[in-house]
Amino acid sequence: MEWQQVENNFVLAPSQPKGVIHFLGGAFFAAAPHISYSRILETLARAGYVIVATPIINSTFDHRQIAIDAYKSFKRTRSKLFLDYFPLFGMGHSMGCKIHLLINSFYPSERAGNIFIAYNNYGAKQSIPLFKEFAGTIPEMENMEFTPSPLETMELINQSYTVENNLLIKFVDDDIDEIAVLASQLQRKFNNNLHQKVTVKTLPGTHLTSMGMDLKWQAGQSFTPVDAVFQWIKQGMHKDNSTLEQTILSWLKSHPAYAKTA
Fold first, then answer.
1. 175 and 121 Cβ atoms separated by less than 8 Å
2. Which of 29, 195, 199, 217 has the least CB density, counted as fewest CB within 10 Å?
3. How far apart are CA 154 and CA 160, in angstroms?
4. In whole angstroms, what is the distance from residue 83 CA to residue 98 CA?
C-alpha cells in the first residue's frame, strides 16, 4: 500500500477494506498527517481500514471553519472512492478530537463511532505549547482565543452531538489532556441509552504518543520559540505505539457494526 492524494486528502486503501477511518491530527502536525502519524495510520490500514487523513493546513483559531472545511473535503473523497457502504469511524488526536466533535455537532451523524486520543479543549494559552513565548514576539496573539470557545464547545456537544459509540484514550503523562471531562460529559448525555458505549482507556505515554515519525531538528545559533517547540515534541514522542494500536484495533473488532460478521 502507498499513500495517495485524493481531493486534497491523504488516502491509504487496503485491497479488501472492512471500514473507513477519517483522521484529523493535532495542531502543528495536522498539515501532514500521513507523515506525522504514519505508524499508527499504516498499522490500521494493514488491519483492513481505509485511512482518509484530512490535512489542516490553515490551522487558524477558527475551529468552526476548520470543521466545516474538513467535513466537506472528506465527503468529496469518500464519494469519489465509493466508500459510502463501509462503516465509518472518526479518529482524532488533540485538536483533531475537537474538530470531530464539532463536525458531528454541525452535521447529521454518519459515524459508527469515534476514537478520541488525548482530547484537548483548553483555551489557546493552555493548549498551545509555549504560547506565552510566541505572544512575546507576536503581541497580537495575547488576546486570541479559539472559536468556538471551550465552554461553547461543551454546550454544542450537549445539544447536538449524537455519536453514541466512542473510544476515549488518555495517557498517564499528559497534562493537557481532557479525556476525563469528555468521558463524563458523554456518559451523562447518553445515560438513558442502554446500547451506548463510552469506553475509556488509560495507557502509558505522553500527549505525543500517537505520533510515530523520526523527528530530526537542529537548532540554530540562537534558540528561538520554534526551536523550543521542536525540542518539546522530540522529548515527548514515543516510538513504540503498539499498546495504543492494539487498543484501537480491539475496540474496532468488538464494535456493533461488525457483530453480525464476528
1. no
2. 195
3. 10
4. 24
DSSP 21: E
Q: Do residues 3 and 42 lie in contact, with contact meaning Cβ atoms separated by under 8 Å?
A: no
CB count, 10 Å around CB of 71? 19
Please answer whether residues 130 and 228 qualify as being in contact, where contact means their C-beta atoms are separated by less than 8 angstroms. yes
Cα-Cα-Cα-Cα dihedral sign, residues 229, 214, 45, 187: negative
Q: Answer yes or no: are the C-beta atoms of 119 and 97 closer than 8 Å.
A: yes
Residues 6+ apart with CB under 8 A from 225: 130, 133, 134, 137
Q: Which of 101, 207, 208 is nearest to 150 (CA)?
A: 101
Asked whether the beta carbons of 105 and 156 are under 8 A apart, the reply is yes
Q: Is residue 138 part of a domain?
A: yes
Q: How many domains, in total, are found in the chain?
A: 1
The C-alpha cell that represents 61 in the structure block: 483559531
Q: Say if 107 falls within a structural domain.
A: yes
Q: Is residue 117 part of a domain?
A: yes
Please, is 100 exposed, middle or buried when counting C-beta atoms within 10 Å of its C-beta (0-12, 13-18, 19+)?
Answer: buried
CA-to-CA distance for 122 and 200, rounded, in angstroms? Answer: 20
Total number of residues shown for the chain: 262
CATH code at 141? Answer: 3.40.50.1820
Residue 93 within a domain? yes
Record the pTM.
0.84
pLDDT in tens, the chain (262 residues): 899 999 999 999 999 999 999 999 987 777 889 998 999 999 999 999 999 999 988 667 799 999 999 999 999 999 999 999 999 999 999 999 999 999 999 999 889 999 999 998 876 555 555 445 544 555 555 566 678 999 999 999 999 999 999 999 999 988 888 999 999 999 999 876 666 689 999 999 888 888 864 444 344 555 444 444 444 444 545 555 679 999 999 999 998 888 654 4
